[in-house]
């Protein structure tokens, strides 16, 4: 298997890949369908169509998310979530770069800029004099939260995000 660090973008801030990428996906097809249903329902209700996948160690979070981003099973291809994915990031405790908050934020920026799912105006906003200085690596290292705010605001203003009830 290739070194995951070499799969990062040329700038070094791209998405952190999953160590499970390319492996077969077993016995969790129901979770893919549930995830798709949840995203579709949120979209119809006018809520931001995102989810947070949580669970204890070994419950399959990484396997599920890897299958969503890089489908290997017929079920994942049929559910069709990969084309709807704006960005991904997989933390790996063995790779300290994947757990650095500022690298996560700048990797997210790179993926959002390249996404065909966002309007061309989004990239223009990120390249604008008001936002682009916050996207500099040193600025992001000092204040990744501020950089993240400048990135997420053009996608969906924080006030449009409802609070979760914590349910599954």
Helix/strand-derived category reads mainly alpha
Any idea what the radius of gyration is? 17 Å
Distance between the termini: 35 Å
> How many distinct helices?
7
> Low-confidence runs (pLDDT<50, min 5 residues)?
1-11, 156-168
Number of strands: 0
On the 0 to 100 scale, the average pLDDT is 77
Shape: globular
N-to-C series of helices and strands:
HHHHHHH
Sheet with most strands: none
Q: Helical amount among residues, as a percent range?
A: 40-55%
Strand fraction: under 5%
Characterize the structure shown:
By secondary structure, the protein is an all-alpha fold. 42% of the residues lie in helices and 0% in strands. The chain is built from seven helices and no strands. α4 (101-114) packs parallel to α7. The termini are far apart. Residues 1-11 and 156-168 have low confidence and may be disordered.
Topology:
Elements: H1 29-44, H2 61-69, H3 74-79, H4 101-114, H5 120-126, H6 137-142, H7 144-155
Helix pairs in contact: 4-7
Tags for this model:
7 helices, disordered N terminus, mainly alpha, 168 residues
How is this structure best summarized?
The chain is an all-alpha fold and 168 residues long. The protein is 42% helix and 0% strand.
